[in-house]
Amino acid sequence: MIIIKEALALSNLLKKRHPGNQHIGFVPTMGALHDGHISLVKQCKLENDITVSSIFVNPTQFNNPADFEKYPITIESDIDKLEAAGCDILFLPSVTEIYPPGKPTLHYELGYLETVLEGHYRPGHFQGVCMVVDKLLSIVQPTVLYLGQKDYQQCMVISKLVELKNFNTAIRISETIRETDGLAMSSRNVRLNEQERIQALFIYKAMIMVKNEMKPGKLGALKEKATRFLTEHGFKVDYVDIADASNLALINDWDGRQKAVVLVAAYLHEVRLIDNLILN
Ligand code: AMP
Fold first, then answer.
1. pTM listed for this prediction
2. Neighbouring C-alpha atoms within 13 Å toward the C-beta of 227
3. CATH classification of 2-174 is 3.40.50.620, yes or no?
């Protein structure tokens, strides 16, 4: 695996070694890699001529400075895992490489998507996501971009970015990889202590409860029940909500046919976890 730290060096290498007819697959990450990330890399490898991954803990997407400071960094083992998965190129830029001083900050018109759920609870977060993904896509110019369903709203935001900026890139969304007990793999899980790790599973249990108990009609009581269930298990809940799976319009009254997704964000002490599950 080639490790490259400079954007220009990466785009030159890709142009020189991989002319237009080759498929470049790209898996952007913030590191602290787990099997969820690696499944994306493996999928990418199967479907492309060249697999590029990036590790960059993007400061502009952290609305909470403490969350940024405590974000786990495990670069040596990340490199080993990417090598083992057959990644061809790792892009490992510095902050100034991605955000050269003096460059103006762009604003992305994300509309409704930025006003709900993660957009509401993490102001500015999706602008930061768009800034970094815009930059990364301009450098790598991938044929296919690999994203995880674990970050459901982020997948929609990035699809919108690709549309807004006319990137010639297809998006492939892979299912959430879970621990054997159901907890979604996440870089933030390493910050959970033993007790919190046991509690964390209740997010998955709450979503399964919603899936099992959802019936056509008003959903308010079910959302409240799931929120209470999490609160009783020690969470501080940002939201448990049910939305249209295609556009994230919140559903209060379900017709029994509309394709729906339950989305959860909740804290165990300092650690904020998110997850989601398609309901029908
Ligand atoms: P992150 O490093 O958290 O920014 O995630 C990088 C990519 O991996 C994103 O597209 C995530 O949605 C995806 N991802 C994170 N966790 C998982 C998981 N448990 N299963 C599948 N994909 C994941």
1. 0.97
2. 13
3. yes
